Amino acid sequence: MHKITLAALLLSTSTWAFAHNITENTVLPAVTINDKGELLYDTTKDKFSYQNWNSGLLSGKVRTVQHIAGRSKAKEMNAPFIEAVKLAKFPHTSYQTTTIINTDDAVFGTGPFVRSSVEDSKKEFPWSQFIVDADGIALKGWGLEKESSAIVVLDKQGKVRFVKEGVLSGAEITTAINLINDLIKE
């Protein structure tokens, strides 16, 4: 009986760990975000606007796609990885971070604060891409967990080369940073 319980636990754990439908060496499943979308910042007018965004726009550069729930807990999950990306100072001509914030998965009443935080980040990192997903389209389209964070590294052709849902370990951070370096050199 003990062996059956352990096997059931391992099976349920592995199912949870691989709940997403993102597969290495393929392109991300197509998603289009029309409610909010990509945050644009006009520095001359100090004004923000949004445009529709779709995952088909992710080729051309090596990218890290960070999908996070609109919660501080989710943002903090992979803050060490994002710090490692900042420290690496990847060239903006061949690398871009695309952060998708699922404001549909935010604590009730915090949506305006989340959007304000995203706007501050866009001002600080204008070369990065910020997508506000008010309907949770990417979460549903990619089969991601609520209240969480996912990191996906794409090559220049837009193919997934690394994917992890949840907190990256120190070793996984090193692996992803080294992979990005290698992909930029290709």
Characterization of the model:
With 186 residues, this protein is an alpha/beta fold. It has a single domain, classed as Glutaredoxin (3-Layer(aba) Sandwich), CATH 3.40.30. 37% of the residues lie in helices and 28% in strands. The protein has 6 helices and 7 strands. It has helices at 2-17, 72-77, 79-88, 111-124, 137-142, 170-185; strands spanning 32-42, 47-54, 62-69, 95-102, 129-133, 149-154, 160-165. Strands 2-1-5-4-3-6-7 form a 7-stranded mixed β-sheet. Residues 1-18 have low confidence and may be disordered.
Helices and strands, in N-to-C order? HEEEHHEHEHEEH
The CATH class: Alpha Beta
What is the residue-mean pLDDT, rounded to a whole number? 85
SS class: alpha/beta
Q: Tell the overall outline.
A: globular
Portion in helices: 25-40%
Which short descriptors sum up this protein?
globular, alpha/beta, single chain, disordered N terminus, Glutaredoxin, 37% helix, 186 residues
Question: Which secondary structure elements does this structure contain, and how are they paired or packed?
Answer:
Blueprint: H1 2-17, E1 32-42, E2 47-54, E3 62-69, H2 72-77, H3 79-88, E4 95-102, H4 111-124, E5 129-133, H5 137-142, E6 149-154, E7 160-165, H6 170-185
Please provide a brief summary of the model.
This protein has 186 residues and is α/β, with parallel strands linked by helices.
